[in-house]
Amino acid sequence: MRKNTYRYLFFFSLFSFLFSLSLHASPTNYTYNYDFWDEYVSSPDAYRVSEYVLGTSLDIGHFRDPQGLYIRENRVYVCDSGNNRIVQLEYRNGEHVVEKIVTSVVIDGVSSNLNYPMDLFECRSGFIYIADTNNRRVLKLDSDWNHIFTITRPDDESIDAFVEFHPLKLIVDFANRIFVQVRNVNKGLMEFDSRGDFTGYMGASLVSLNIIDYIWRFFSTQEQIARMNLFIPTEYNNLALDNDGFIYVTNSSGTAEMSTAIDPVRRLNAMGQDILIRNGYEEPIGDLHISDVGFAAGPSRFIDVVAFENDSYACFDRTRGRIFMYDFQGNLLYAFGGLGNREGYFQMPVALDRMGTALYALDSRTAAITRFDLTTYGELINLALNEYRSGRYESSAVVWEDVLKMNGNYDLAYIGIGRAALRQGEYQKAMEYYKLKHFREGYGKAFQLYRKQWMEDNLWKILLALVLIVFIPAVIKFSIKTIKEIREA
């Protein structure tokens, strides 16, 4: 009896040990998508955590309330806002190395300390721009961090008197125009030319009023109407530049009532018009299922966005700490992350950027940067998108087939194969794959093209049939008449 007990305990301990190993080896962050019916569908991980970057691990002390993150090539800039400094890192041989720490800038021979810098941008020509928030200025520096000029609050009547110049985020486009997101400015991005002169606003959000607001404004004074603009949640909260020079912006109201009245992410052209494509099952708004209770209540609130070379883009959700990846058509590729203390989770997301295909996510509360690298599954999805964007449709379909081998429930793989077949003129195949995943728009287009192709291929048959239908009865009638005349003669 005792032997059986020991044997039982031994196998139980062995099973527990192997089970714990399997848990440890399993992915530490979950990944999911939505199907046609807007239901959660689990999927393999597309990204996994490869490294955490902390100030202490770099021997420079704790990051304190970091608010900004920018990456150019292998250079990583961290706006360590609470410590009033910019930390420049370089990624070499798989490690992050401190290259420079900037706490002040020499202006006209006098050292001027940074005061809660919240963002930085390095343009292609090497110039560096800093949103020095609490100093109420934007600094332009050369590649050696020497001061060139400073942008302060413009003296312009279009700027409300009660608005102070607190630059939060900025970018510089290919024409060296400077776009700044300023606190309490809901007229769009403030635009400055290459010399730092204010030229106006760009990409103003559309204001949506309900009938009660409209009636209230009708009976309000001009002063009251001016003050009402403060309560319209139309401010952008972050921006990014893609490879084509277009500007991605995030815009979140934080209220369920306004979640359908605004677009959480937009892509602006030079005229400030939104040209983002939204052809997915649902628009790119983050989570589709929201709750009104709990610490993560309400719709997704995108706090940052980053664009990739294949025109896909990732959005960082502050409400639930998730990263949503969309393709160039607005289809949700996958979502991952969450709020908490687990690996790959966050507590207060603030910034997102990329180095190649690797994602860097900044958390201000934990003062940590999380680096995510693609898994084999994620690499296949990226490769399929790249092949399609390069015009190699047959190759794209082959890669999507490989994706289906890893995840048979992945709707976009079926749609991707259908899309490639459509481009190759295989309309019946496209209809088949679109039908499997209820992609009505794609099916309708494929059916229209298939009908046109069928008509073109079978037009001679149709014409021949019409000719036969018209002339055969006449020929038969003429033949019968002729034979009858011959017999009577």
Q: Quote the average pLDDT.
A: 86
- And the CATH topology of the largest domain? Neuraminidase
CATH class of the largest domain: Mainly Beta
The share of residues in helices is: 25-40%
Instruction: Report the count of strand segments.
Output: 27
In what order do the strands lie side by side in the largest sheet? 2-1-24-23-22-21
Task: Describe the global form.
Answer: elongated
Spell out the CATH superfamily of the largest domain: TolB, C-terminal domain
Q: What are the segments in which pLDDT stays under 50 over at least 5 consecutive residues?
A: 8-28, 254-261
Quaternary structure: single chain
Derived from helix and strand composition plus strand pairing, the structural class reads: alpha+beta
Task: Please indicate the percent range of residues in DSSP E strands (runs of 2 or more).
Answer: 25-35%
Query: What's the number of helices?
Result: 8
Beginning-to-end CA distance, first to last residue: 120 Å
Account of the 3D structure:
The protein is of the alpha+beta class and 489 residues long. The longest helix has 49 residues, at 440-488. It folds into 2 domains: 46-366, TolB, C-terminal domain (Neuraminidase, 6 Propeller), CATH 2.120.10.30; 375-489, Serine Threonine Protein Phosphatase 5, Tetratricopeptide repeat (Alpha Horseshoe), CATH 1.25.40.10. A hairpin with a 5-residue loop joins strand 21 and strand 22 (313-317). The chain has 8 helices and 27 strands. It has helices at 2-25, 211-218, 222-228, 376-389, 393-406, 411-423, 427-436, 440-488; strands at residues 31-34, 40-42, 47-54, 68-72, 75-80, 85-92, 95-102, 104-107, 110-113, 117-122, 128-132, 137-141, 147-151, 167-172, 178-182, 189-192, 198-202, 238-241, 247-250, 265-268, 302-307, 313-317, 322-326, 332-337, 349-355, 358-363, 368-374.
